[in-house]
Hints:
By secondary structure, this protein is α/β, with parallel strands linked by helices. It has 2 domains: 3-82, Methyltransferase, Methionine Synthase (B12-binding Domains), Chain A, domain 1, CATH 1.10.1240.10; 93-217, Rossmann fold, CATH 3.40.50.280. It is built from 9 helices and 5 strands. A 5-stranded parallel sheet has the order 2-1-3-4-5, sandwiched between helices. Strand 4, helix 8 and strand 5 (196-197) form a beta-alpha-beta unit. Residues 45, 48-49, 52, 55-56, 62, 65-66, 69, 101-108, 110-111, 147-149, 151-154, 178-183, 198, 200-201, 204 line the site of cobalamin (B12).
Amino acid sequence: MTKEKLYKGLADAVVDMDESTVARLSEEAVCNRFDAYETIDMGLAKGMERAGQLFEDEEYFVPELLMCSEALTVGVDILKPHIRRSEREDKHKIVIGVIRGDTHDIGKNLVKLMLSSAGFEVVDLGRDVPTNTFVDRAVEESARIIMISSLMTTTMEGMKEVVSILQERGIRSRFKVVIGGGPVSQGFADKIGADAYSPNANHAVRLANELVREDAREPK
Ligand code: B12
């Protein structure tokens, strides 16, 4: 089977909540030595995007979405051990979490997976994370980057609070704040004083690498 056909098959199987086909095709991707990272990105994640669209169109409801995300997880579990890890000498630590009030964590989990595959050490704070916790844990872990996810317009304001807490404590310049998720945009990032916005997991990795390079250039 060609790569394109397999990716489409995987996306379809996520949409169809078909765990056994997801498992079979994910194993086939591994046997054919297709790039595991690309298989997740172009196959499984695309299927979840389409499921999200069906939810918007009121063709799918909460139970269907949960089954789609379970199917996606079956595939991720098979592919994850085969992602080629790039080793970095100077691993930067990133804390990542979903903001308070929000329990959508499929996207955050994908971002985390891609970042750790790229060699970053990622501390996952989980979902529904209080704003103070982002700051406390970033300090405790001596992280350099704080990544915050929000999927709802009602919770995105919490991201601004994280930036404000950093400012109030006088430690804003110690951390780069990166935000992402459905309702978030570059404009919103600028408005709340975040350092960057990223629309997807792949881009988030590129961005993290850029921030690390910038960090290395800044005078200490
Ligand atoms: C799946 C889903 C659910 C699942 C979540 C399962 C889980 N464990 O995550 C369930 C069914 C549980 C659920 C529940 C609810 N949901 Co819901 N859900 C969705 C849905 C359909 C898809 C989200 C998703 O997983 N997409 C797939 C992933 C891969 O994409 P992603 O999350 O966007 O992530 C990518 C990028 O955004 C980016 N990214 C994400 N985070 C970050 C972070 C950083 C730092 C970076 C750099 C990048 C980044 O990278 C990711 C990968 O490329 C969206 C609609 C949509 N189309 O987005 C609604 C949606 C988010 N839900 C919504 C709502 C209202 C709810 C509920 C309140 C119940 C309800 N009435 O439906 C509850 C909320 C509970 C709560 N308090 O959190 C609304 C939010 C509306 C709003 N106010 O803005 C949406 C937009 C649907 C809608 N139009 O009404 N939901």
